[in-house]
Amino acid sequence: MAPTRSESAPEKLGIGMVGYAFMGAAHSQGWRTAGRVFPLPLRPVLAALCGRDAPAVRAAADRHGWAAAETDWRDLVARDDVQLVDVCTPGDSHAEIAIAALEAGKHVLCEKPLANTVAEAEAMVEAARKARERGQLAMVGFNYRRVPAVAHARRMIAQGRLGVLRHLRVTYLQDWLVDPEFPLTWRLQREHAGSGALGDLGAHIVDLAQYLAGEPLVGVSAFTETFVRERPLLAGVSGGLSGVRGAGRGPVTVDDAALFTGRLASGALASFEATRMASGRKNALRIELNGERGSLAFDLERLNELSFHDHTEPAASAGFRRILVTEPDHPYLEAWWPPGHALGYEHTFVHQARDLVAAIAAGTDPEPSFADGLQVQRVLAAVEESAAKNAVYTPVPAPSTTETPSDPEVP
Amino acid sequence: MAPTRSESAPEKLGIGMVGYAFMGAAHSQGWRTAGRVFPLPLRPVLAALCGRDAPAVRAAADRHGWAAAETDWRDLVARDDVQLVDVCTPGDSHAEIAIAALEAGKHVLCEKPLANTVAEAEAMVEAARKARERGQLAMVGFNYRRVPAVAHARRMIAQGRLGVLRHLRVTYLQDWLVDPEFPLTWRLQREHAGSGALGDLGAHIVDLAQYLAGEPLVGVSAFTETFVRERPLLAGVSGGLSGVRGAGRGPVTVDDAALFTGRLASGALASFEATRMASGRKNALRIELNGERGSLAFDLERLNELSFHDHTEPAASAGFRRILVTEPDHPYLEAWWPPGHALGYEHTFVHQARDLVAAIAAGTDPEPSFADGLQVQRVLAAVEESAAKNAVYTPVPAPSTTETPSDPEVP
Amino acid sequence: MAPTRSESAPEKLGIGMVGYAFMGAAHSQGWRTAGRVFPLPLRPVLAALCGRDAPAVRAAADRHGWAAAETDWRDLVARDDVQLVDVCTPGDSHAEIAIAALEAGKHVLCEKPLANTVAEAEAMVEAARKARERGQLAMVGFNYRRVPAVAHARRMIAQGRLGVLRHLRVTYLQDWLVDPEFPLTWRLQREHAGSGALGDLGAHIVDLAQYLAGEPLVGVSAFTETFVRERPLLAGVSGGLSGVRGAGRGPVTVDDAALFTGRLASGALASFEATRMASGRKNALRIELNGERGSLAFDLERLNELSFHDHTEPAASAGFRRILVTEPDHPYLEAWWPPGHALGYEHTFVHQARDLVAAIAAGTDPEPSFADGLQVQRVLAAVEESAAKNAVYTPVPAPSTTETPSDPEVP
Amino acid sequence: MAPTRSESAPEKLGIGMVGYAFMGAAHSQGWRTAGRVFPLPLRPVLAALCGRDAPAVRAAADRHGWAAAETDWRDLVARDDVQLVDVCTPGDSHAEIAIAALEAGKHVLCEKPLANTVAEAEAMVEAARKARERGQLAMVGFNYRRVPAVAHARRMIAQGRLGVLRHLRVTYLQDWLVDPEFPLTWRLQREHAGSGALGDLGAHIVDLAQYLAGEPLVGVSAFTETFVRERPLLAGVSGGLSGVRGAGRGPVTVDDAALFTGRLASGALASFEATRMASGRKNALRIELNGERGSLAFDLERLNELSFHDHTEPAASAGFRRILVTEPDHPYLEAWWPPGHALGYEHTFVHQARDLVAAIAAGTDPEPSFADGLQVQRVLAAVEESAAKNAVYTPVPAPSTTETPSDPEVP
Fold first, then answer.
1. pTM for this one?
2. I need a surface site. Which of A360, B171, C268, D395 has the fewest CB within 10 A?
3. Three-state DSSP class for B133?
4. Which domains does chain C have, with CATH numbers?
């Protein structure tokens, strides 16, 4: 038989990606897989991968299936076969690359946190606003919204299953900095990472909390702490979490942990903890919401499960139930495996790719938007301000009239 | 055969108890049972029970096995057959009764929180100090220290199994106020209860956190909230959680929830949440401690279990283990059942009775002392002060030189 | 005030107990406590305790609160102040004592398994039948029916929440024989214990399975095994699980483990495993029932919880829920603590005492009856027969016409 | 820059796959992804996909990334660009296709169960033996061996962490047949599926039990049951679990459930349950092994976790620990994400592809072999024989001298 690609195959969408460490690998898996699992209106093509180290980026391109490799992101942004630029670099280059890509007429997907400062994030939102007028889309990569259990929780909350919210408690606990000999990678340097656990982990949980609650944080009270102030220097440039150790020690310039509390617009009380020093907790993003009619709880270490208590049931038969979020009518599950067959971490990137491609084809606004990313950035800034001022309650500025945070979509 | 009581039976210790609602029932079970399970140096005798309603207190005395009933606590305190006064009333009468009992030469066990104000607690500590010179003892009823799993956690921490502490997170979540029609009992009135979730639940978790960590909280940042501001009035006087509803509604004058963060003396970060509005959480006193060498977690809803992660193990075989705290060499377990046979809530009162009787016989200081109760009271006051001042960081005053909080004993 | 015992105090019910080891301690706690927690129509009085070793039984009587001590069970049975004989001895003396007590006009509570052989159990049932005509009652101590979560499960099943049953799987796993140096106590000797894990643990799970399902096992296929064939001899007589080691080793004459499968009357498939060799499992009595409309699961190591899946719910929100069986309308809970306050192992004996006292006062048949105990004995005999015959399917004989196993009562 | 594929790219390995339903999709994901994540010595190329329905297979090929489509498996087997044939059809065609592929000089991967009968499986083993002499490899797709937690369990057992085994208990519980209106798909017809839950689920757990224990089952006692004897007919041919309903009902000719017990070569007792009627259990493949030195437990519904109890620890600090099997030195994890980032179901197929490609490049025997698949088939046949003979103990025939089941490799 002849080759099988049929006449009606969808049009291509050329992807160019900057960065190829942890996030680069995860995004590659997303772009490669989305169209194999979901019927997509456009066919993502892994056009070109960009990184500064030519042999390394070439090897990464081969490994992950990218057709070409670039060493200057400006060249990537200029390529004709690239319609979407996916920014997977450390936070200090997000604004420059994303804005340039938008100005070059590309759609943009940018890793979280959106930027290292509120000012950068504001510029990005403005660039996205202008690009939107030209039909380009911009999305920030809060991938955990696309864990099926999280999306299903959002759906249940939108349906009113929790009623008026009273409490949120959210943690994101890891332990890779417990060892004082863990070296000083870019993630521990303010100039590259912007902040530490706060931007890396705290950004995720602030976004998730606001997404699930369907309302913003209006103010916070915060502590941050750097428990280990100096760490071994790395000899060379480091990608991802690892690196080669060099001589001597250098100062850690970001937080190891951030602990903050606050209020949502509705008056609900919320608590947040982001840390890399919680021994034995590997990826414990946990969220619990208590409302007048019910409660929901989620733990990223058991990401196929959602815990739900229906407070309207008779007390004698009520209790937190473990919903295995693998049923065909759970979000994203229609395309995967039969009930009970678990998904994993990287599926969130497949779902992110699916949703962004669908939005591009439909011309609708993808979610979370850059404005959503900016709002998270403002919360993080308020956290840092409060931590610097004896934990005093610090309001989170409201969006300006030209910014339009998404109405959280019901999946 | 003749009656069996042998010549060498231990001397009696006459107990007089004030209050016979929830705590009264639990303490009765403790006094009745301690000497049946543990070999005690003194034999507790349930001498007299006191309450204001004569027929009710007489019925309660019959039910719970008290030899006599009194309607005025002054009469109880004056009885010759009473050597120990057990104060189980609401917080507004703790100081008056406990101080009178100490001045009358009795040992005193006082329910938590020690008092409704710092000033009352200070007076109680002073009264206890003077009574101590006469050989009388005073103890505050933070019974959860005597859950075997908690005592075992204390032992492990004292042995250095966690190393330097980095994080504590503690919650005490209940849900009996979610229903806005739950009536206005004494626990919701400031003049009787002092505070709401803060004093009732928060006092427990502050004490537990400091007991387990082996160090005090030095400052806090806090929110408190009353979500339901008015509730149905009760027709009459109410004991415990229930009551008869009357006409109309009255104001709730205590907090429904308290959310606070802080630092321990060592610099560890701590978070606390006490609420009666967490749908589906019935008695979720949860504590987790993360240290450089390990972590421990406990949940009162599964009180026979302790979760432990040993961070010194190779990563490939490390993980949180569920220790079933029912082995003969776990605290208090030598006298109970074979491994795997669960204990329950009221066993903490049996253990409390055992330890207090043993201290009286030995003339040693029981723990937690009134000074420990005062220190908790100061934390609660700092929480209220911070909550009133925009959550600003509020130091907890250090003990005066005449107060001597216990060195937490290793069980 | 005068002593408080009021005129209308309930009549006494004198208890005489034989045996004072593990079960004796647990039953003592039950008899002492039942009337302090539940309003009882008769007042249990701990009249006399019996054991062969005079000083030991005297000390035990003092410890546990028995008024008198006896060294010959015939003397105990003959006492006028004893109306109920509670048999807590090893299985080889159950029949003799229980029958004598019934013939002496006493009510009888007999520990499980009812007897060491079917013939003994049949004689006991016949003695109970005759005694019943004289108004005396007989009950066998399958105390786990009185775990509130188990009783609540029975209630839900009786209400049809599971529909037609398809599967039962039941285990009772302990690990105290894993150590080959654990000594040869009476529980490891056929002449005293009748069988090993089968009679000790298997009897419990056979009774529970039939009680919950509301129907009998009709046949079984079985393996039994003694993994450690010789163990150190004990120097003297041993009570309970412990003892003093003597010289040399002797043969273990009972099973370490029994593994069997079978069918219920309705055709549901059932599997059972009883073992003392499951490392790390301390008291893992686990039962799961799957029906057309739902499933229930229980684990004695978490005895305040019941796990329930409602199969009639939409799949997207269905899942096993953890019911904390501590609500006031759960069985037995009306008299205990507020929601979320755990009960323990020995509460089952309090509940057993309550129910038996209530039955005596009302003249109704207590449950489980001796006929229920005989039926379990027949299952155990069928297990041993199948194990001896290459696991071939072995029917369980139906009750004779004079035996009347209880219709499981809905609690 | 020029295209990136470097000179030293590995040689291609052309894959031809038969079947494109559930297993086809999962295998496609495995073949597509393995080389993107792991450095492979050969590059798998998705050469051709085969199915009987031309438009459907063409669409599936497009979807899953296969270069060509075939409608006759004989044509697929004959293709020059195919070096490995992957058989994902129902069991009734495994033998014919696999033997033809081996005779045509191809490597073969065959889905489990290896065949529908022992005779077919024997013929396949013989064909594989001959092909091996020509350098071709054959592997059976027991993919669950390649869940990292399972492979890690195997490693721990091989290291002696459990000591002498005493007990295995294994279940594979699903619930998709609880609804009596679920239609009569091929999986419910003996002529296509060979058996029901037994071959589909039971084959997995028999293989896993023997793989983990490192020893075979030597005999079994069994029950099988078909609870729902008739089901709605499907109108047309059905792929996977779904289909279009037709008129009327037809007989279910396979088991809904199989319950069996047995002994391992070492004398350990084992129990197995495979069912599609366990309400609320979606994919509950659970295995627990108890040995003299420790225990391990695994649940496929939480596939990133392994539960381990170390019985050599002091009892006071021992307990089942939850190992999150996501560390870099866990099997297969060196190539995936940082600790705590979960893998999912389909990763097992990626690992299977990796291991098979590595074996082909190295010329070593892949595991599990066809002989391993035949041994499982013999266990299934013994189960059916025992079930037909009143559950009598039925030995599992030993391998003939020309069959060589794998020594389970330590991952």
1. 0.95
2. D395
3. helix
4. 11-143 (3.40.50.720), 146-395 (3.30.360.10)
